[in-house]
Amino acid sequence: METRDDVSKGSWGRLCAYAAWLATATVFGCGVSGGSTASPSGTAGVSGAAGEPASGGSSGNGPGAAGTTGAGGNTTGVAGTTGAAGGTSRGGTTGSAGLTGAAGVTGTGGAIGAAGVSGGTGGTPLSGITVNIGGTNVPKENAIAFLHFGHSNMAGRGVDLPATRPYFFGPTDPHAWMYHSGVGFQPAVEPTTAGDSGNMVNGMVSGGPGTALVKEAAALAPDKYFISIGYGQGSAYCSQFLPGALYYSKVMAGALELKGKVTFAGIMIYLGITERHGTQADINNYPQCINQLVTQIRTDLGEPNLPLMINDYEMGTTGPLAVGSAFELAIEPKILMVPMVVSNSVLIPTDGVAIQDDHSTTDDHHFSLDGQKEYVRRMLATMQMKGWFPWQ
After folding, report:
1. Which residues are paired to 176 by β-bridges?
2. How far apart are alpha carbons 288 and 342 in whole angstroms?
């Protein structure tokens, strides 16, 4: 069997190679300091006039006039200058000293400047819009929704390992929810996040990534509510999800009902391996189809920059679809083109993601429950590195 090119095989390595330059920055608003304008000082009191000298042979005319009271200011006025002594008479009595000028009135102190307004923490101010989730009114900014859809791997065919099953099928998380049109909010649990009619594998209920997605996100940001809006359909390929085709309205029904009420975090897609069910044009035009689909979703939700996280080829696949097969060699170059064609998009590597154990004679490429959990952890870690997960 042929071995595929190292460039397509080492996709997790490719992610790590550029992870170093990805960084986020949190901007903190600063409070504006309150100013305190000093009031002007009071005007100094006018000096008292000197006593006039007495005429010859008689006593002086008496005491000098008192200094005029200084005008009141906002600080203590300067005391009036002592009046000059009366002049000496020719043979007369020495004139009395002028009276001391009265002190200026104490000025009123300047008012204390108002305190500066506290700066924000860099987060988006609350809009006042809330959505009721399980009886709790949650601000729009704290209700974080993922739109996720795709083929049978999204619907979920995972049943292993036994120890992992309670995480997917057992107790729910109070901050992990799912939403479906006509049903509303429910606690997230498999297989109902995105399941189809095929969620039974040899008598065992199987599950997909929806529950793990919102539970793992809630573990990263426990004060937020995370919402799965999912749809999976076995053997479906990209062109069947386009507007006017079989599944677009089913994918978007719940999302459009929540538009303006929640904060959309991103689009998660499982496709690629099922393009073999379409025509040669479906294989050749795969990246262009994804771009058309994502562009329409962003337009309908009013979110032109909504991130896209899409899977690389399922590298653990065995059998006729394994890496190196004719189909894998045809579709993998097209998959690798998606980030070059679709803005704000990234491939999530699948190297080492566990494939379902052989509980079905035909299953050779679906993720196990442990594989689904590992995949969404990689996806959320990628969002963090790219600054697409600001809720922590």
Report:
1. 226
2. 8
**Distance separating alpha carbons of residues 346 and 385, to the nearest angstrom:** 11
| 313 CB-contact burial (10 Å; exposed 0-12 / middle 13-18 / buried 19+) | buried
> pLDDT 10s digit of each residue in the chain, 392 long?
433 444 344 444 444 444 443 433 333 333 333 333 333 343 433 333 333 333 333 333 343 344 444 344 443 434 444 434 434 333 334 444 444 444 444 444 444 433 333 333 345 589 999 999 999 999 999 999 999 999 999 999 999 999 999 999 999 999 999 999 999 999 999 999 999 999 998 889 999 999 999 999 999 999 999 999 999 999 999 999 999 999 999 999 999 999 999 999 999 999 999 999 999 999 999 999 999 999 999 999 999 999 999 999 999 999 899 999 999 999 999 999 999 999 999 999 999 999 986 555 556 899 999 999 999 999 999 999 999 999 98
Alpha-carbon torsion, ordered 273, 274, 277, 278, to 10 deg:
-90
CB 191 within 8 A of CB 231: no
d(CA 127, CA 96): 80
Phi, psi of 227 (to 5 degrees): -130, 130
Check the CA dihedral 210-216-217-218 and report its sign: positive
Residue 130 forms beta bridges with which residues? 139
User: Hey, which bits of the chain come out as E strands?
Assistant: 130-133, 136-139, 143-150, 176-180, 184-187, 200-201, 204-205, 225-232, 263-270, 308-311, 345-348
- Token code pair at residue 76: 């203590």
- Pick the closest to residue 248 from 285, 304, 280, 292 (CA basis): 292
Residue with token string 């689009």: 267
Q: Which backbone phi and psi does 34 adopt, to 5 degrees?
A: -75, 130
Residue 273 is classified by DSSP as G
Q: Which domains does the chain have, with CATH numbers?
A: 132-385 (3.40.50.1110)
pTM value > 0.90: no
What is the residue type of 22?
A: L
Closest by CA to 169, choosing from 187, 152, 151, is 187
| Sequence-separated (6 or more) residues with CB below 8 Å from residue 354 | 160, 316, 367, 368, 370, 371, 374
Radius of gyration of the chain (CA): 40
Contact in structure between 193 and 185 (CB atoms under 8 Å)? no
